[in-house]
Model the fold of this input.
Amino acid sequence: MKADAAPKIQAKDYKSDIKPVWCPGCGDYSVLSAITKALAEMGVAPENAAIVSGIGCSSRIPAYTTCYGFHGVHGRALPLAIGLKIARPDLTVLVAGGDGDGYSIGGNHFIHACRRNVDITYVVMDNQVYGMTKGQPSPTTEPEWVSALAPSGTGLRPFRPLGIALAAGANFIARGFSGDPKGTTKLLIEAIRHPGFSLVEILSPCVTYRPEQREWKKIVRPAPVEPTSDQGRAAKRLLTDDGFNTGILFRSDTAPYQPPVGKQSASLAAIEKEFAV
Ligand code: SF4
Done:
């Protein structure tokens, strides 16, 4: 008798028994769900995927999945993930985090991760605030946003992560919205499939410290133009849009970084000999 075909992996298979502690209505729930749906649709088994994070509300994601996970220190998720991907190129490696973790503490790693162009996918849940530490302005906060912790606003120009990613060499740049779970899932699939460093910024409201972000659903819209591989066009697009155009905004076919052949297979004895004093 013919054996049954192996059962298809479903999104629920990627969800761990740990219940998220996010505030009700937080956009991160939807992003977690989109990640699990994307991996299921691609048929990447949980043991063949790893999610690395730093610190912050969205950086809790690895614990909520059944994939391999690493909850690292603040702002250091990208170098960890790059090291992992180079050591285990067979794994699908994602990084999950927020705007404070990735663009402030991790800002320098962000630039160099784009430049290195290793084949990983960076998912940034941008809510323009530090949620876990009670609502300080983050690098992407508008200068005039007033809160108890910044009573006069920051007066600082916000960081432009997508433009910076383009200038630094990211291979795939997209923006999604947590209120559009189907669109976010689709973007994640495209980003994971695309070789090289992929940045997917997802507008993900912090309903506790930025309740006005609930209104994002009224202003987010699909980008009116097709994805481009032309850096000049992409630069104009990314530096002039208002931050609410969604979709794939830049896609290049630059080959991802590959470590030099042979180096990674050095034996421990050979490494000890090389560094012996
Ligand atoms: Fe989400 Fe904000 Fe609550 Fe953090 S503080 S869980 S970002 S709503």
